[in-house]
Structure formats: structure tokens, C-alpha cells
Amino acid sequence: MMMASSPGCCLTRNFVPASAIAVSRLSSSAPRSCSSSFSCSSVSSSVISISTVFQLIRRKTSCSIVISGFSRRRRRNSVTRPGRPGFEASGVRRKTKVRAIVEERESDIAATATNRGGLQGNEDADIVVIGSGVGGLCCGSMLARYGEDVLVLESHDNPGGAAHSFEIKGYHFDSGPSLFSGLSSRGPQANPLAQVFDALGEAVDCVQYDSWMVHIPEGQFLSRIGATEFYKDLQHVAGSNAVADWRKLQEAVLPLSAAAMALPPAAIRTDWGALVTVLARYGPQLLKTFVQMGPHGAMRASKLLGPFSELVDSLGVQNSFVRNWIDLLSFLLSGLKADGTLAAEIVYMFGEWYKPGCVLEYPCGGTGAIVDALVRGLKKHGGRLALNTHVDSIVVEEGRAVGVKLRDGRFVQARKAVVSNASTWDTVSLLPPDAVPKELQTRAKDTPQCDSFMHLHLGIDAKDLPSDLEIHHIVVNNWSQGVDAPQNVVLISVPSVLDPSLAPAGKHVLHAYTPGSEPYSLWKDLDRQSAAYLQLKAERSEVLWRAVEKALGPGFSREKCEVKLVGTPLTHERFLRRNRGTYGPAIRAGKGLFPMPSTPVDGLFCCGDSVFPGIGIPAVAASGLVTANSLASVSQHSKLLDAIGV
């Protein structure tokens, strides 16, 4: 069994995509770096539109561990939550369908794990992918879809990386991501993961809902997405001044979100082929979108490449609750407050959360259902997955990555390329010291890291718990400390509220975590078997227990929990093979760029949360998609876009 320990917070990191930079260079008037603000006087409107949309795509392809991208379109395979206002009451249908989905999923796991005992058969491939996280699986399955011979190598006995699921005593736990949307979306505006599913001919059934519970110093309230619902929440919690500031903010940023919906993530590639797949295909619509924004909208658009706080300041938003709420949303999206989060991320979030018809989704069967669908797609198109196959190093000959060496000493040849789904720091550690270019050394040394996590997984009796328990709870202990302060914010997910098949009858599964705010420095010198480690583990998990007690009420009892699992930064580091247990790069808006998939080592590419577009399920799915597109021919890429209707 693989202990859960994966991201639990910020999905997106502030980044300025190199794709935007590449496209910007098509114009002699375009700045060489997107880290500076764009202005209409210095850059043609067409270049502004392309560059800004690439920034917005960051949020489109981003999510927090809690937030996974939103789309208003729905598929027929979505299952609605019964008994909620505005939703169909279809309890019997939902329950039956969820059970059927899980039974199917269990058979899928058996079918897709044919190489669970390690690599068997051919020890070479066109493309070797290191790691089966969502980014690696998206990249590998899309390359297989493009006709390449792909081999994905995974060190652990379960695929999925930070998104894997695990089971104990009949309780099915998600290890990380918990709040999703857009999984059943389609078309140009779809979540990038949904676009991968479309390309592979796969889908994931989902339960839909529209709210989560918030516990803050002012009290608690049910936060609802939609065009007008949050105004009611604000009036109740913070008064009319807060409502006025929020309305001002919403009216300013909602028009900007249209630009994010004009370019499908599936169209992006990182070479000059973008002239065909982006500019020729979508350029006119992008230009039209920005023209329709008018002069004031264009001026505000220039702020999308900077911190969201600058846009908020320019609007004169001063209400303390609204500013705190903005910091909280920013932190959950990027792991940084509004002064470090790219404005484009929040603008896109506004467009998706505060328009009519928005819904949240939970995949039937948990995050493991997402992983299973990607593995099915990989195998359907001829790709291979080898579990329990640890890559010890990347083999470089004459400056080119030619394959990998496994822990057991075998060499696996990569005829065309090696793709690393590991972090920047872990990828560098896989390279021979004398083969690491200075650029990569500098990147690994200078890229700041997010902190790590404390995790609490529980299997509990639902008997004395509220019958109307929400799936998600956000607990903020003290606004004055800052939402990024250690142990100040706790996120809780109880997915069995929507999918009872995840737990034995009458039980619930629960995952609570501190979202990327646990300092690794407290843990780095401890022996996991020592009394000091066990004591610190108990002390640092107490905030999680207290948050669960607040969310679940007096009917919850620690003593009655049937499963109790506490994870630490060392757990995160050990099971996910993450340097210092980090959530990922902490690149502040305007201070740096996420690198693109290619590296200074010929034949070596990267995907995952250390490259464009950043952290989070949709973001890493997009990274895998972009990497695969960049390795495919422009003709293949164009045919794919035609096939999925974008």
C-alpha cells in the first residue's frame, strides 16, 4: 500500500508562459520578456491578445489542490447530486450509477496493471516517460495517440503520482486533489484534462454540486458559486461595503475573462508550429475579443501579467474582508497571496465561478478514476506502463539523452526522447553530474520552493454526523496572521458525501491537510522511527484534528475513527519522491517564468508542475499536452484539433 501524500493546495503558480514569449517574438515590436507589462502603445493588439491569452491559459490550466479548473458546459455522463436547490433529485439513479462506476473501475485497475511486477518485454521505446503522474500520463497517452511507441516508467506500485488513490479496510482515499470542475466539459473552452480525454476517447463520470463550507473568524457560511449567490454570502458575513467592493471588482474583471476562453489549451505548442496551430487558427478570434474589450478593458488587460493585488489596488478595493477573501482564493490557486499570484489566474477564476450555470464536479470513484482513464487511453493507443520500475538515472551520450538506467541495472533506450515527469530538482538529480548544463543547475538552485504539507486521512462512522454534511470545508484560523502562515488554513474533503461507494456502508472517508504551508525545515533532520518525529507528528497534526472537529461537529469522535493516517513533509518526500516534500515552484508574479518543456540537454523534455503552465491537475495535464504537441508534427497536431472539434 502506498501512503497518501500529495499536494493539497495551490494549483497554479504565477507564471508567464514561454509560449507567449515565443509567439510575441513573431512581432518585431514585441518585448523579449513577458515579465514586463504590456501596453497598447508598444505592442500590436494582436500580439497583446496572443500573449495575454497564454497568461490566462495559466488559470485555465490551473487549479489548486483544491481547485481544478471550471467550465459551464456539461456532458450527459455527469451525475447530479440529489436534494440540492437547483439540481435534479435523482438519488436512486446516482447511487446505482456510482456503484457501477466503482465496480467497473476495479476491473479497470486489474486490466491496466499488467506490468505491475516491473518492466517486461522490450526494453526500448521511441519515447520514455519517467513518472506516471497526471502530467506524465497525459504526455505519454497523447504521444501514443500521435503514433509513437511510448513506455511510461513508474517507481511505485500504483500510477497517478500525487493524484493516486489508495484503499484501506474498504475506505478509498484520494491522496491529494479534491475539488474539480470541467472534467466533463467539451469544446474550445474545455478543461485541458477534458481535452486529453476527448483526444483519447475516454471520459470520467462525475457528481455535480455547487458549494463548499467556509469556517472563518467571522463565523461560518456556505459559499456558493454562481452569478449572484456570493453577494448574499457577503452581505450576511461582511455587510454592504464588502458587497459594493466585490461588485466593483467583479464588474472590472469579468470582461477580461473572455480572452481566456478564446484559445483551447490543446492548440498550444512551443515551436514555430504555433504559427499554424495558434495564430492561423485562432488569431482572428483572439483579436476580435480584445477589440471588443474597448480602451478601458485593454488598459486593465495590461495588468494581467502582474500580481492580482495591483489590479485590486487600481480599483480602490479596500474592504478588509474582501481583501482577505482575495488573498485566500489566490493562495488556494497558487500557494501565494494576491501580491504574488498572476492576475490572469484570478481573472479566469472569476469568469468561471461567478457566471450563471457554473458547477463543481467530483469524479465517481475518486481521483483514481481519472488516473484509470488516462491509463486506459495510453494502452488503447499502444502505449505501455511499467510499475515498480525505478529509474536510477538518465543516460546522456555526447550531450543527448538516449535512455534511462533502472535501479536493477538495466538500460532502457529512448530512440527519440526522454520526458521527465519529475520536478526540476529531482530531474537534475537524475542526470550525471558532468552532463548537467549550467542553465539547469542554475534553475534548480534559484527556483524557490513552496512549503510542504501535513495530511490527515480518516475512515469514520457517519452515524452521528450531520445528514447535510458538505463535501468540502475551508478553515481559516486567523486573518491577521496571513493565509499563507503555517497551520493557519486547513482544507477538508469528505468525498463519500457525494460518492458513498468510497467507504463501507454508513461510513465516510475524509482527507484534511494544510495546503502547502508546512515548513520542511522542522522535519529535515528527523529519523522517521524516532520518538522526536512521532512527537512532532502528533503536535503538528493537532491543527488538522481541531479543524475536522469544527467542520463535522460534536458527533465526530477521534476515538471512533476506524482508520487514522497522518502524513508529514517526510511522507511527502518519501512516497512522491519530491525534493524536500515541496508542493512545487513558488514563482511570484512578475518575478520569474515557468520554463517550457524543452531543456538544454538534447532529447530531454519535461512535463509536470515544474514547467509551463505550473501546478495543479489541469495545469499538469496541459503541460503533458503541450509537451506531446511539441514532439508531434504540425500536421498531426492540426488533425488532432480537427478530431476533437476545437
Automatic annotation (TrEMBL):
Protein name: Amine oxidase domain-containing protein
Domain of life: Eukaryota
Residues in Amine oxidase domain copies: 135-629
PANTHER family reported for this sequence: FAD_NAD(P)-BINDING OXIDOREDUCTASE FAMILY PROTEIN, PTHR46313
Organism: Sphagnum troendelagicum
Pfam family, one: Amino_oxidase
InterPro entries: Amino_oxidase, CrtISO-like, FAD/NAD-bd_sf
